[in-house]
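Problem 12. The chain below contains 640 residues. Write out its predicted structure in token notation.
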Amino acid sequence: MANRVALSCLVATLAFWAYTRTLLPGVDPGDTGGFQAAVLWPQVSARQAYPLYYNLARPFVLATAPLDPARALNLFSALWAAAAVGLLVFVCAAVSRSLAAGAIAGCLLAFSYTFWTQAIIAEVYTLHLALIALCCVLLYAYAARPTFLPLTVFFVVYAIAFGNHFSMILLIVPFAVFLLQSTPVPASLFRPPVLLIALAAAVVGALQYTPNFLSVASAFDAPEGWSDRAAGFWFDTTKQDWRDTMVFGIQASQASDRLAMWWFDARQQFGAAGLALAVAGIVGLWWTSRRWAVLVVSALAINTAFALTYNVGDSHVFFLPGHFMTAFLAGAAVAWIAGARAMTAPARVLLVLVAALYIGWRGWSSWPAVDRHTDRRAEQLIGRLSFGINERDALLVSAMNWQLENVLLYSQRHLHPDLAWVRLGDVMAHWPFLVEDNHRIGRDLVLTPQAAADVVAAYGPAYAVIPDPALPVRTLEQAADAVPRGMPYVLSVLTPPREEHLDPQALATALGALTGGEASPAAGAAFELFAGVAGERAQVHRVSNRPFTDRFQILEESITVRLDSWLPFDTFRRAGFGHVLRGREHVMIIERGVNLVWFGRDGSPSQPFYWASLYAAQPRFRLPATTLQLARFGLLRPGR
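Solution.
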């Protein structure tokens, strides 16, 4: 027991060290930015349906007060990731009776690609896996001594875990079957005291959502009846409006492509050798502990089936519980193979050493791609958009991608509290009054591009919406022209987000500047890569609809381009869709749209340039408050 605990702490510490070295330093788009903005905010909503996550994260963030909330919440994920790894080491070592098996399982999960990317940002998935691992430890304790106390603790932990992620429901069958197999008299599980404890645990788990329910019940537009309020709470908390179209939302015609995506994802995490170990682990676990084989394999199958048929843009993260079970099986395989009678002591040592070296090599290979310790793109993008705006002089009116809007929300709450900002959708119904009130106190209205387009579409020439010259934006053609002739560059093109428009003529012009007119973009490709020396014919040109890794040499630069996503199913990925590496240096995170990076004469890489992308710089538009300001912008002459 003591050895297992010590080993678990050792492996968890190693994982935590790796996560802190690669940790995202600040805010990120998407749900991550939403979590970071909401963690210290006193108000809750029904759709903020992660009460356990917030209840654990809030005191942690407050305790790390010198850190900004975004970085603290990223660190919170790293902590739970390490906990999940340590608990996996413990339970796998206990079940297989092999410390080496536990270490292999833990390290295999710790340095798997998707889990690592979630361990360094604010997300719920590392806590989710830690809770799954804790449930497994409690089930092991119950199986060793099937008494009332460990069963009660398991019920409570499992019920409370629903406050972090509803997908815990997918484990109810594997866990129930394990309890039935581990109870000397299975019928005793249905005695009134046991059922009462299970019901009480469920009530405790449900009570976590009380603030969310009260936010619906106390809203100014709350339904009159309590049944209608409960229905509204359930609708928002479960996000029923969009989950109804996503659960089992994959068409039969997409089945083969989804299976190919799953196979790519599995190999991305563990490689062919790791998956082979996991397959061997099914056999080995069946021979050594059938009830654990049933639990692990059924949990893996159910979770994989759900993730395969879940029509959501980041389905890769829903495979994570399956990755946990796969790593468990791989560890169990090491114990089973090493325990074979034909295995000599040196052969056992060699087996464990080879497995450890394999995991070390995979971790070493993944490190530069997952490393985000210098990534401040989201903060810089919103900082640029809101530059020079404060509540005294201007009001920012936005209509933008929800992922970036979460970054803007965090920025206003924690980085720039003097920023005055509203969403256009919240004020469009009384837009003329908003304009009049702000102009009366001398405040400009500053609009994002989509907000400006919506205002012009609704009101035509009634408002003088003008480009803001204080925030010029480079075009793709200008960026390509700026690449020094004779210097290496890498340009990649991915299917852009649906909110963005990729102008094929602008792309062709930019490619002509980079390649001396020798290259043109392919039509309809999910991913396209150009690389070479600016002003000369492209040395590398690859078109693909599937992930790949290319390594090549441009002058003295050793470049690796990794496409780590599956298009078109992946519509957003927290770690980017791919990466450009120079040696082991992370040069650029590839996003949907156009991505360009080049190297200067001193060998240093440029700042990544994004176009038709989530990270593309946006222009601003203004409704100036006074005629003097109109004159300054060239719309009126002084004195008119």
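Discussion. Residues 627-640 have pLDDT under 50 and may be disordered. Students who got a different answer should revisit the alignment rule from Section 12.3.
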